[in-house]
Amino acid sequence: MNIYYYGNQVYQFSHCKPIYEMAGGTFIVKKVTKYLPFILNMRNPNCPNMSNFIWQAPPVKVLKNNQLDHLEGVFISLSNVNLHVGKNSKTIFLGHGTGDKKYGGKSISINKYDYIFLTGDKYKAKLEDVGLKIPDDKLIKIGNLRFDDYVNNKYDQQNLKKMRKIKDMSRKNILYAPTWKWGNGTLMKYFFRFAREITKEHNLIVRPHHFDARKIPFLKLWAKLNNIDNIYFSNPVKLKTSDTFQDFALSDLMISDTSSVIYEYLITKKPIIVAHTKQEDLHNMSDNMNIMKYADTFNEQQDILEVIDKNLNDTSIPTRFNELLHNCFYFNDGLSTQRAVDFIGNLNQS
């Protein structure tokens, strides 16, 4: 049985890419305008599944979610849409975002999928917090697929520094990865201050949300005109050269807000600072799955360098964040992709 990966946005495919690299399959984009961005951003000559296709990118079809019934196989969706597939096909929703922004609502289509791949108890709690009651036999505990390469030491910090052309490798690398306007993201609130202040002592890597990537040229120009040195930009649209977990491996500390990366970063056991935002529409989470109970926060009245230095020197952080990691995510053992592929394989045999 074939495997198909469906997403509304190209960047979403980074979450299912580990399955593709292990098991192969075909990607589906809903618009012709997304075809070329997919090819450009998903190509990877180092992946054997991509070597026989145009520009060494995965096979991809252009189909809307209501045009899939002529295909037969296992459909893995990264988008909350109702997939119209044939009666012999199976659908899997790949749950990934674990941030505290309120997720969907009772009208969302997740409960129509045959199965849901769960990253952990936090994602399950998010579904329950919006009133979704999904039978346990549809909830498949996989863990976070994207953790595998990090746990298995696939990222080399020194090589990443060279690839990103970090000039002063003696400095600490501070990653600033805010969310966008849905979540009251802090990019335009704190960027200019962080650029001026953090770069005095550290390297600053700025990674906007995918939907704010268009602002990068302006931010780069502003930094150049203001003679800001030791600042670098990571474009989330460029999946091969600016992957989220490359930034994780490259950095020594992360600042974020309500973005889901603030929980994914826990796999690194490195310090996290939560930038204050006025976003109020958040999930109701128990304390043991709430980053606000574990990490320091930053507001306008504080000295950001003092907060950073305090966290860089806090030896209790690895143990504290490891506890939160295991409260939020299953397994964290580097084998999540294998679990997903095994489950799909069993579906093919049934």
Account of the 3D structure:
The model has no long low-confidence stretch (mean pLDDT 92). β9, α7 and β10 form a beta-alpha-beta unit. The chain has 12 helices and 13 strands. The chain has 2 domains: 161 residues, Rossmann fold; 175 residues, 3-Layer(aba) Sandwich (Rossmann fold). The radius of gyration is 20 Å and the shape is globular. The longest helix is centred in the C-terminal third of the chain and has 14 residues. The strands form 2 sheets. A 7-stranded parallel β-sheet has the order 3-2-1-4-5-6-7, with helices on both faces. It has a 6-stranded parallel β-sheet with strand order 10-9-8-11-12-13, with helices on both faces. The protein is of the alpha/beta class and 350 residues long. α1 crosses α12.
Gyration radius over CA: 20 Å
CATH domain topology of the largest domain: Rossmann fold
| Helix proportion | 25-40%
Shape: globular
Provide mean pLDDT, rounded: 92
List strands and helices in order, with pairings:
Blueprint lengths: L1 E6 L9 H7 L2 E4 L5 H8 L17 E3 L10 E5 L12 E5 L20 E4 L2 H9 L9 E3 L5 H5 L5 H7 L9 E4 L10 H11 L5 E4 L9 H10 L5 E3 L10 H7 L2 E4 L4 H4 L7 E4 L20 E3 L5 H9 L4 H12 L7 H14 L1
Parallel strand pairs: 1-2, 1-4, 2-3, 4-5, 5-6, 6-7, 8-9, 8-11, 9-10, 11-12, 12-13
